[in-house]
Design brief:
The protein is globular. It contains 17 helices and 15 strands. It is 41% helix and 15% strand. The strands form three sheets. The protein has a seven-stranded mixed β-sheet with strand order 4-10-9-8-7-5-6, sandwiched between helices. Strands 1-2-3-13 form a four-stranded mixed β-sheet. A four-stranded antiparallel β-sheet has the order 11-12-15-14, covered by helices on one side. The protein is α/β, with parallel strands linked by helices and 464 residues long. Bound molecules: pyridoxal-5'-phosphate.
């Protein structure tokens, strides 16, 4: 292919040079234009042509403190000038990482989200953190003399990342198909989505009991001596924004504890205020053995993830025989700049009372979405908590039948919203559009978001 002229438009250069994640590649090549973002402030981003969009997704569910936070820029610049980089292998450490680990543990314990939280391992993404979880679970059971106890159970519709192991934990078929996944030892149970999976006449509690029974039957069929862990997002995000049905986690945990199966809480979206609470675990009474955090920990301003382990797991690792080498980690584990950004991000959370704020505005968002959309003939369910929500579209409200997938109606609605200046993401595993704006969003901006969306929905559906 001949090189593009120097003054080629950016979108052409992009198509000639970038391999995009989670993108239909052929269709992207055939497209003209495309969204190329340039700058952002508050809850809005601006593209290279100067068009402004309200970002209903906070990027990928992560810009919790909003865009253009100079405090975070300053924290990064100061740490880059002071140290720039150093590793944390062989027990080497740095001030920002120590401070961040200490603050995180304190926050997890105080908020009742992880009372036995004992140590923090830093990575770069939710995906690598969940890969770390898979390795930790294996290592822990090897150390305890139970090498056969290795299998992990996840849920259909879950999203845990896209590296080999984390994509296996993810329960959305499109992320498995092309790559021969899941890997051995990973399987999935029913999505706890009452609207779709609940049976005629079944109460929410009975639905939860049935799913706990299903999980127990699976553990027994696999052999409890072979099942090591269960992984769950407190509220399932990218798969569809599914809230746990009443009593779900309590019943699930009873089963897990009976068979000595560890609970990995994936807080990558729920952590850091998204649900109007510090973490989802505290909110839903989850007692994790292991926890994954990313995204909101730096509000997306720097790639950083954290794996937190319980006292029981920590002490087993600490007391490992021989030299007790924890043979795992990355060049950028405990990156001082990422940790400095995370600390500055936590400062904003604390000084602005962002979690409480998210609970308040979140209640407003949920109320506005329900009142604007509940009666729409093609809206099956409006669901959410705090500042995360989804609107699921259906062809027929009575039968709950989805649209023909080939029509990709939810993608059409999302495209119409984008045209009108609102970014609201069509989800990959169901016919829903998600909302997860920055936690700093104001009531007026919520109104604007809901109004633009409702209009885009009406315009798209009327045109069908
Ligand atoms: C719950 C959850 N876990 C893990 C991940 C993977 O994180 P990353 O994309 O940073 O690898 C995501 C990303 O959306 C997520 O939502």
């Amino acid at each position: 292919m001949a090189p593009l002229p120097e003054n080629a438009p950016l979108d052409e250069l992009d198509r000639a040079s970038v391999l995009h994640p989670a993108t239909p590649l052929g269709a992207h090549q055939d497209r003209t234009g495309g969204l190329i973002v340039d700058r952002a402030k508050g809850v809005a981003i601006t593209d290279v042509h100067g068009k402004r969009y309200l970002d209903g997704g906070a990027g990928l569910w992560c810009v919790n403190v909003g865009y253009g936070r100079e405090e975070l820029g300053r924290a990064a610049a100061e740490e880059m000038s002071r140290l720039g980089y150093y590793h944390t292998f062989a027990g080497v450490s740095n001030r920002p990482s120590i401070e961040l680990a200490d603050r995180l543990l304190a926050r997890l314990r105080e908020s009742g989200s992880f009372e036995s939280a004992a140590r923090v391992f830093f990575g770069l993404s939710g995906s690598d953190a969940n890969d770390t979880q898979v390795k930790l679970v294996r290592y822990y059971n090897n150390l305890r003399g139970r090498p056969e106890k290795k299998k992990i159970i996840a849920r259909h519709g879950s999203y845990h990342g896209l590296t080999l192991a984390s994509a296996s934990l993810t329960g959305i078929p499109v992320f498995h198909r092309a790559y021969d996944l899941p890997i051995d030892g990973v399987s999935h149970v029913t999505t706890p989505h009452y609207y779709r999976e609940g049976r005629e006449g079944e109460s929410e509690e009975a639905f939860s009991a049935r799913l706990a029974d299903e999980l127990e039957a699976k553990i027994l069929a696999e052999g409890p001596e072979t099942v090591a862990a269960f992984i769950a997002e407190p509220v399932m995000g990218a798969g569809g924004v599914y809230l746990p049905p009443r009593g779900y986690f309590e019943r699930i945990q009873t089963v897990l504890e009976r068979h000595e199966v560890l609970f990995i809480a994936d807080e990558v979206i729920c952590g850091f205020g998204r649900l109007g609470s510090w973490f989802g675990s505290g909110r839903y009474g989850i007692r994790p053995d292991l926890m994954t955090c990313a995204k909101g920990i730096t509000s997306g301003y720097f790639p950083l993830s954290a794996v937190i382990v319980s006292e029981e797991i920590w002490s087993t690792l600490r007391d490992a025989p021989d030299d007790g080498m924890f043979a795992h980690g990355f060049t950028y584990s405990g990156h001082p700049v990422g940790a400095a950004v995370a600390n500055a991000n936590l400062d904003i959370f604390e000084s602005e009372g962002l979690v409480e704020r998210a609970a308040e505005v979140g209640a407003y968002l949920q109320e506005r979405l329900h009142s604007a959309l509940d009666d729409h003939p093609r809206v099956g369910e409006v669901r959410g908590v705090g500042l995360i929500a989804a609107v699921e579209l259906v062809e027929d409200r009575n039968t709950r039948a989805p649209f023909d997938p080939a029509l990709a109606v939810h993608k059409q609605v999302s495209a119409a919203a984008q045209e009108a200046g609102l970014l609201a993401r069509a989800l990959p595993g169901c016919q829903a559009i998600a909302f997860s704006p920055p936690l700093t969003i104001r009531e007026g901006e919520v109104d604007q978001m809901v109004d633009v969306f409702a209009k885009a929905l009406r315009a798209t559906i009327d045109d069908l």
